[in-house]
Write a structure and sequence with these properties.
Length: 748
């Protein structure tokens, strides 16, 4: 009886506690979820991010032909909608990370049971239990848990967030959010950046094997980094392909054909110094910083270019930009070799031979030392000048630029200054004259090593490229014909009359005089006597007024020497001014942004500039004929006999004093392009005109660039003649038909 009673008692105890045994995990989990959801274990992440998952998005820079030029970002992440994802990418993600994704509500209890079984049996190969939604929820936690207990607490918070995500968003939106937020390393945050950086493509165009590679990285991007662990990444890719077969997203035969294929990367480093239009992007950054301040003041709406996902639609054409950059690099690389050969064996090279060693040290090297970053860091320690010079003469390890690639070397900082002073630089800008749209912007030869922008920041003497403004002023005032004759004699600007220290008497480059030149001959051969004659007639203030109307804002000295281009003007200003000639006398201020949109595609601001009449159509056409003469019979002739161009081209070369600067600004009816070439230090130059003239230093870049542009049918550069004025021209244009000498007393 005792035994029977004991049995009955035991049975009652078992029956009483058995439900408790089975229900206790549920009760424990439920209690933990309550504690997590009620905030006892700390606050949940900021759900503003959940409500607005497109926060902290990179701002995209978009070309006029709809290519991504680059971006501004804290995180290099750009939102992509589900419809713009590859089907293979979606299938690979679901097959690998969450087989029952479309069947659960954020938590896969079947997977959890599998995980529990793995824990109890010690089998780690049964797979994980986190759904895609849970993994997305985990991304909202900015800090890693400091202990296992914190991780357990965080896990329950993830469950709560996951269920809320599932209630608020569709499955498609969740997949898009997951892929948009995932960090694929190497500044590839989000699938759009990853597709671009690793494969130079878009999420929509990812191939099956590319999709499998990126989804494979989701397991552990550091472990499966294709740049460092290609073999491991390949094996992981193949596991993804196997999962796709298992879940019936892929045929076995297709899988078998892919697993033996190597991963073929097309890696494009995400760096502000990499890619195309680097100088332009830096200029755009300054523009956008200024714009955001003004927009805030005007509307009260604040935008951060690094995290608000703006879209900046620029006027830059990506293909024209590439042509421009390649043309600059190829020419300057070749010219640099000529420069080295030119100065080989010459004492004090590459500085002006009139400079003595002491002058070079005092006037060139010491100022360069004080401009260096190294000097600014050292100077904080308040050391003596003797110690400073000692440090700059002490060899150290450094990486330096060369045209054959960067070089790791050992040299003193002072020697590195001497080394870099040898380099020639260049800038190019290309503008659509009717709209003012800037189509290409090349600020220098290498943005990583040389930050200075020679398009907008650099102001150099413009030489003979300024002469057309003098001619234009004279034609505007007196309506001269291109055939108007000017005596080839030296013009004297008397010191008393012109307020000078001494008489100013410009000389021709060849110092030859006698006879006379028509205006078209004078500009084509860049005769200083003709420019001086015209300047004496119109006076500097009239020339300056015209230049101002054409967009030149730099200081222009009101002196006779202005006619020879002694003023210092930026390449941007000069090319913009020449756009007036190409646009039938109408000036449109150059600009490089067409519109700015927010992340939702709402246009925040559009940009355009009005035309301003500077010259009448007739008078402007006369100037154009003169500038055509430069190409047809003057210093721009290489465009005909070497490059073989047969279309209408006008322009002007320029060479400054001592050959420090070479210029060419040329145009066709619907495109104006300006080029400058020289060294950063004006004392560094070619010693003679043969190599140091604009026709050698700058014009070949223009020719090579335009040759590529002409061959691109999409770009559609006009090859027709410059438009003849509707009202006609009342002066003689064809000087071959001129039977009499036209002088200043003739009336037009």
């Amino acid at each position: 009886m005792t035994v029977k009673n004991n049995f009955i008692l035991t049975k009652k105890i078992v029956l009483y506690f058995l439900p408790v045994f089975f229900l206790s995990p549920v009760l424990i989990i439920g209690g933990c979820l309550f504690l997590a959801g009620s905030g006892v274990w700390g606050p949940l992440p900021d759900f503003k991010q959940l409500e607005n998952p497109e926060t902290n998005l990179a701002t995209e820079i978009i070309s006029s032909d709809n290519k991504i030029l680059g971006s501004f970002f804290y995180e290099n992440r750009t939102h992509v909608n589900y419809d713009n994802l590859s089907v293979d990418l979606i299938n690979a993600l679901v097959a690998t990370e969450d087989e029952r994704f479309f069947k659960h509500s954020g938590i896969d209890f079947i997977a959890l049971v599998r995980v529990l079984r793995g824990v109890l049996t010690g089998n780690k190969n049964l797979g994980g239990g986190s759904t895609i939604t849970q993994q997305l929820a985990k991304m909202f936690f900015s800090k890693r848990p400091s202990s296992k207990l914190d991780r357990i607490k965080q896990k329950f918070k993830e469950w709560i967030i996951a269920t809320r995500i599932e209630r608020q968003y569709s499955k498609q939106e969740i997949i898009a959010m997951y892929l948009n937020r995932f960090d694929f390393l190497n500044l590839a945050v989000g699938i759009k950046s990853a597709a671009s950086i690793y494969f130079n493509t878009t999420p929509k165009d990812l191939t099956l094997e590319q999709s499998a590679t990126l989804i494979g990285m989701a397991k552990n991007p550091s472990l499966y980094n294709p740049l460092k662990r290609l073999e491991k990444t390949t094996n992981r890719r193949n596991i993804v392909l196997n999962q796709m077969v298992k879940n019936k997203y892929l045929d076995k035969d297709v899988r078998d054909s892919l697993v033996s294929m190597p991963i073929v990367l097309n890696y494009k480093k995400a760096d502000h110094n990499e890619g195309i239009a680097t100088y332009f992007r830096e200029r755009l950054r300054a523009f956008m910083t200024d714009w955001s301040k003004k927009y805030d003041e005007k509307t009260g709406e604040k935008y951060n270019i690094y995290k608000d996902g703006l879209k900046i639609y620029t006027t830059i054409d990506s293909e024209m930009q590439e042509y421009a950059e390649n043309s600059v690099k190829e020419h300057i690389k070749n010219l640099q070799n000529k420069f080295y050969a030119h100065w080989e064996g010459v004492e004090n090279a590459p500085y002006d031979t009139s400079w003595r060693v002491g002058q070079i040290d005092t006037l060139i090297l010491l100022p360069a030392i004080k401009r260096s970053e190294r000097y600014r860091k050292i100077k904080k320690n308040k050391i003596s000048n003797e110690k400073l010079l000692e440090l700059f003469n002490t060899p150290v390890a450094m990486n330096v630029f060369s045209w054959d690639g960067s070089i790791d070397t050992i040299m003193s900082p002072l020697d590195s200054i001497r080394y870099y002073n040898y380099f020639l630089h260049s800038g190019l800008i290309s503008i659509e004259p009717a709209t003012g749209h800037i189509k290409a912007w090349v600020g220098g030869i290498n943005h990583e090593q040389f930050k200075y922008d020679h398009v907008a920041e650099g102001k150099r003497q413009v030489g003979s490229t300024f002469k057309p403004f003098v001619y234009a002023t004279a034609i505007d005032q007196f309506k001269y014909s291109p055939c108007f004759k000017v005596p080839n004699i030296q013009v004297i600007f008397e010191k008393e009359k012109w307020g000078l220290d001494k008489d100013y008497i410009p000389e021709n480059a060849n110092k030859k005089y006698g006879g006379e030149f028509s205006l078209v001959e004078g500009l084509a051969k860049s005769k200083n006597t003709v420019s001086a004659y015209l300047m004496k007639r119109v006076r500097p203030k009239k020339v300056i007024n015209l230049a101002r109307k054409m967009g030149i804002t730099s200081y222009l000295p009101s002196v006779p020497s202005l006619c020879l281009g002694t003023a210092e003007v930026s390449l941007l200003e000069m090319t913009g001014a020449y756009s007036t000639f190409a646009n039938q006398g109408m000036y449109v201020k150059p600009h490089f942004v067409s519109r700015i949109e927010d992340k939702n595609g709402v246009v925040l601001e559009s940009f355009s500039n009005d035309e301003i009449e500077v010259l009448s159509e007739e008078k402007n056409y006369i100037i154009v004929k003169l500038l055509e003469g430069v190409v047809n019979q003057g210093s721009g002739g290489r465009l005909r006999w070497y490059y073989g161009f047969r279309n209408a081209i006008a322009g002007k070369t320029g060479t400054t004093q001592n050959h420090s600067d070479g210029w060419f600004v040329g145009f066709v009816p619907n495109l104006v392009t300006g080029v400058w070439t020289g060294a950063d230090n004006r004392a560094v130059r070619f010693r003679d005109l043969r190599l140091g003239q604009g026709a050698e230093m700058a014009l070949p870049i223009w020719g090579d660039y335009m040759n590529q542009v002409f061959q691109n049918n999409r770009i559609s550069i006009a090859d027709k003649k410059f438009p003849f004025p509707e009202s006609g021209v009342s002066v003689l244009l064809n000087c071959d038909d001129n039977k009499k000498v036209i002088n200043e007393d003739d009336e037009f």
